[in-house]
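Late entry, written up from scratch paper. The run itself happened at the end of the previous shift, but nothing got recorded in the book at the time, so transcribing now.
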Amino acid sequence: MAMLPNGQLRFAHGLLWTALLALGMQSDPLFAQTSEESKSDIKDGLVVLIAVDQLRRDRLAEVAGGALSQLLAEGRVFDRAVLGHGVSTTCPGHAVMLTGLHPNRHGLPSNTFFDREAGKVRYCLEDDDPETLVLGGTDRRSPRNMTATTFGDWLKRERPSSKVFSVAAKDRAAIAMGGQQPDGVYWFDRSQGRFTTSGYYSKTLPSYVKAFNGSEPTEDGFMASLPMEWTHPTGRLRPDDYEGEDPRLNRVSGHPVIGADAATSAASLYPSPYMDSVTVDLAMRVLEAERLGSRDALDVLAVGLSATDTIGHLYGPRSAEAEDGLRRLDADLNRLLEALMSSVPRNKLWIVLTADHGVAELPEWRHEQRSLKCPEPSGRISYLDLGGAIFWGIYKHFSWPFGDPRDWVSLDGGHLVVNREKARAEGVDPSDVIGALEAALESLDYVVEAWRADELLDAKSEAGRLMAKSYVPGRTGDLLLQLAEDCLIDELGTTHGSLYAYDRDVPLVIAGPGVMSGVDSQPAETVDIGPTLADLLGVTPPPALDGEILRLHGDR
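Output as recorded:
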């Protein structure tokens, strides 16, 4: 299959962007064409936040004529939108959207954090309180580790009759967007193959969620109508079977979806586009059952769609799977928009579309395009090589000849933490151990910087400032690693988490009454969403937020 050089690919994307805007304008308008609303006049309606996990901004040009095109045509499109922090992972990425705070202030540095007080790695939203047990499961989940409130919390504080609901495939997406005091938060628990919540929110699921799950999801629940396999056409950009893709669920069409039981099905449903389909189905059930947007109140519905992320990790953003997944996402969003238009007055509906982070290309693709920047020829760094460099640096300085360097430093969960008790017991200043680790890491050609906390507190460079916004005292390791561009610590597939543009460039579209449509090149970050919604809808946010109020009308 012929491959487009990067320049031609960017030009083609530009043409597609123009075409999809034109196609979107041919549809019936989704939003009432009104001038700027008086904030005091906005008493009721619905705010919908659609967070598409791992949707890189440049990928919006891949689809035309559907829901995404219509949102782009009728909304205000911030074409320079980025994440404002350096560790681009799911948990902090969803939390910044409605808190208006960077991770260093909302408390969630990544999908896990190192709890220095407890001396162990924790999942970002785990909770030791038995009252937060996941219904039907064994984990404990709540938003308590997120030391911030969200737009939904600000709204309910001022308008107690408002309802706030959050639905997602991932618990960390649903919980982070839902805030501290929502009316309902539901996510897909792969261990059960069901949508659930935790005791923090309720001791039982509402009847409509129970009915959605069914007594057995594959027989009378939301999985019953799903196909056994996900099949898709060959991609436009590269062969379906491509070097570097993860083979666990097949590298070619078709990929398993429904298996012999709910647990088997859950494992294969989760990294398929049908995960988005069922998440949208449940969001529509919530919309109808709770009468969101059709009551005498202003409500919030957050919807987290994760298939772009799970598919992207396995196959990369240029894969046949990613192309088909995005097409199917567009169709699912069409269904959601139709449901919204049928139940919410168009002059009372506001929609925000964004993403928690982007993603890196497969190194093999970058190599084929002759654009790989990683000093490592394969673009892939093994955990063994990186761990060897770390432990050798400790061994030669502190545990030679018979000591075990693993007693001095932990790599649990990717958090690089010096054992201070061990260092002091050996008469060594822990800062000397951190310094030795920093030197060992920065001697590697694929490591740009190993950031220490004191460096981040006084960072002058753009990279340093980004990493500082992801540093949470008491929850971040002793060193934050910045790999060279295009370098992945992954054996197969691809990932995200860096401060480079491919991980931080995300879409941001805001549409609704009082919002002028068009492309806007003002600087914008996802942390601006909460403050901007508060300003648009007359809600009072907490003081001293990190996010700015984006201009939604007037000169662009």
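Residues 93 and 356 are 4 Å apart (CA to CA).
(Scratch paper discarded after transcription.)
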